[in-house]
User: Fold Protein kinase domain-containing protein from Hanusia phi.
Amino acid sequence: MIGQDSISSPAPMSAESVLETSTVTKTVRDDGVKMINTFEVVKKLGKGSFGKVKLCRNTHDGQLYAIKVMDKNILRRKRQGMTNMLENVKKEIAIMKKLK
Assistant:
């Protein structure tokens, strides 16, 4: 388990730290640890109408990342005025990729 001190200071975000994937594989290891693709789920950070945010550890480099998991089908169905919510999420991803 991770101590509070090790997660209290966020790492600076860069274009390399923002990744979009269209395929999510959720599994549970024999030791009970939940996995999302190659990331160990450490804890849930939050939940909203369109998805969840989880604190995860990359099994390749040990680094901690916040992962936002959203269901594109739900985003397509929910509308905000005339704007498709999926388009808003794509804009959010584009903005995060530009942050340094």
Remarks:
- The first helix runs from residue 72 to 77.
